[in-house]
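Quick one, T. Sequence first:
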Amino acid sequence: MGGRTTRQRKAVTYALAGCQDFVSAQDLYALLVAGDHAIGLTTVYRALRELEADGGVDVVRDETGGRLYRLRPADGHRHYLMCRDCGRSRPVDSEVVEEWAGRIATETGFTAVEHTVELTGVCADCRPRADGGRPSADEGGEPPCHGGPWDRARDIRGPARSCAS
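Structure tokens:
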């Protein structure tokens, strides 16, 4: 992350590492404050902007266009398939997209080409069963979309759309 690595910025990075799905800056701020971290919302936004500029986070947009963040894996940029109901995200193989974007840049002479790919659907947990219910983990369904202390964010943010550059 660019700039000084302060206690607050370390807290933002640590909190993001504990999130299993994408989270908004506001939700991340609420989680940090609930965890007794002395931090301001402006500091959370600044840390997220720096992480994004350094390639440290993947960013998706929710249905209203708001930005949601997740630490980028060590192996780099990814695209995600997002559940329109719960916001669950899954990385998808997007090598063909990356190759296509690179080829377009080369063929056109453009540099610093960015792209947006939106893949949404309904995950197994949100898809209704024939009897009107939803599959549980005991019945071979996927584990719940969210869990642990970060579950609070789900109700606030809603579903997200995948975009990356």
